[in-house]
Amino acid sequence: MESLRFASHISTPVADSPATRRFSRRLGPNRAGLRISAQAAEPDLSVTVNGLKMPNPFVIGSGPPGTNYTVMKRAFSEGWGAVIAKTVSLDASKVVNVTPRYARLRAGANGSPKGQIIGWQNIELISDRPLETMLKEFKQLKEEYPDRILIASIMEEYNKAAWEELIDRVEQTGIQDAFEINFSCPHGMPERRMGAAVGQDCALLEEVCGWINAKATVPVWAKMTPNITDITQPARVSLEAGCEGVAAINTIMSVIGINLDTLRPEPCVEGYSTPGGYSAKAVHPIALAKVMSIAQMMKKEFAGKDLSLSAIGGVEKGNDAAEFILLGANTVQVCTGVMMHGYGLVKTLCSELQEFMKKHNFSSIEDFRGASLDYFTTHMDLVARQQEAIRERKATKKGLQSDRDWTGDGFVKESESMVSN
Ligand SMILES: Cc1cc2nc3c(=O)[nH]c(=O)nc-3n(C[C@H](O)[C@H](O)[C@H](O)COP(=O)(O)O)c2cc1C
C-alpha cells in the first residue's frame, strides 16, 4: 500500500536540491536509490466532495468569517477551498443581536490575560442582514469567482412553506453550489423552534429534511448539534432523509464564566447573560469524538454511497485537520480560528497538512482519509486484546524463569532456549 502511494511521488533522478535531500532522507536508504523531485513531492490537497471540486479541504465555517461580500471575497482570495456563508433566513428583521456577544476562556492561572485563548463563547444569532442583500452578494461573488465553492447556510422555522420559499429564493439566484442546513444553533433560535430545536428532535428533523430534500436541487449537508446524547441518531436520520452530507459540530452549549468582581455572568449584557455556544481549541477533542461516531456509523450503514462528512471544531493547525481526516472527514471547517488568526490562516493550514502528508508519504487526501477510524473499539474489546497480548508475550518468553524449572526430558531444548547464537 505504502509503495503504491509512494509510486506517485517517484520521478527520475533530479539535481540535488536541499528540499530533495530533505525528502530523500525522510524516505530512508532502502528506496532503491531513487530521488524525489521537490516539485513532485508536494502532496495534492484537492478534494471532490458530492461533485464539488475544491483546491483544498479547508472550508470557512458558517459565522462571522462568511457574513458579507467583503469578507467572503477575502476568504476566496486567500485560498480557502470553499466558503459557507453565515446562516440566512427569510425574515432578518426577527434577528436582533446584542453586544458584547463573545467571551473567551484563556489558559493559565485564573485565565491570565496573557494566556492562550482556548475557548470562545458566542451568543450571536444567525445573519441579521436582509436575505435580498445576502443573495445579491452571493451572486456577485460567484461572478468574480465562478470556479470556487460557495455554500449557503439556511435555517427556517418549523414551516414547510417557509423552507420551500427560502430554498427557492436562494436557488433562483442560480449561484449556490450546495446548502448547509443549520439544525444546530444552540441559543436564541430554538426559542423560535429553529436550529437545535429541530436537530435535537429526530421526528421533526426527519420531516424537515424531507421537505428540504424534496425541494433542493443541489447537495444538502445537515449540520449537527453536539448538544445531544447520541449524535449518530440525527446524522442517520438526515442521511436516510436524502441529505448528501453531514457537518459536525456546531457549538456546545456553555456558560463560559462568572466575573468574580461583578458576580455577573459573561458575556454580560446590561448585567445579564444567557447560555451560548462554545467553540475553539477546547472543543476539538469533543468534536473528534462526535466526528468519529458519525464516521463509524456512516461506514457501517451507508458504505458505497457518495455521502460526505464535514468536520468542524477547534481547528487552528494543519494537524487538527489531519486528525479529522484520519477519522474520515472529507472537508474541514474553521470558524473561530479565522476570527482569532485571520484569513491567511489557510496558507499555514495547507502547508502544515502537506508537511504531515510528506512525513507519511501520502500523496492525496484519500490516501489517509479514515485511516485511524478502525482503531476505535469498545473498552471490553480493549481488555480482551490486552489479555491476549499478555498471553502471547508470556508464551514467547525465552528461557526458564527459575532453576527449579529444568527437567530431565526437555534438558537439551531448555539449554537451547537460553543460547544467544
Ligand atoms: C461567533 C460565531 C457565530 C456563529 N454563527 C453560526 C451560524 O450563523 N451558523 C452556523 O451554522 N454556525 C455558526 N457558528 C458555529 C461555527 O460554524 C462552528 O460550527 C463552531 O464554532 C465550531 O467550530 P470552530 O471551533 O472552528 O469555531 C458560529 C460560531 C461562532 C463562534
From TrEMBL:
Pathway: Amino-acid biosynthesis; beta-alanine biosynthesis. Keywords: Oxidoreductase. Residues 393-421 are annotated as: Disordered. The keyword Oxidoreductase applies. InterPro entries: Aldolase_TIM, Dihydroorotate_DH_cat. It comes from the Eukaryota. Residues 400-421 have a biased composition (Basic and acidic residues). Residues 45-357 form the Dihydroorotate dehydrogenase catalytic domain. It is an enzyme of class 1 (oxidoreductase). Its EC number is 1.3.1.2. GO terms for molecular function: dihydropyrimidine dehydrogenase (NADP+) activity. The keyword Oxidoreductase applies. NCBIfam families: PRK08318.1 (NF006183). This is dihydropyrimidine dehydrogenase (NADP(+)). It comes from Salvia divinorum (Maria pastora).
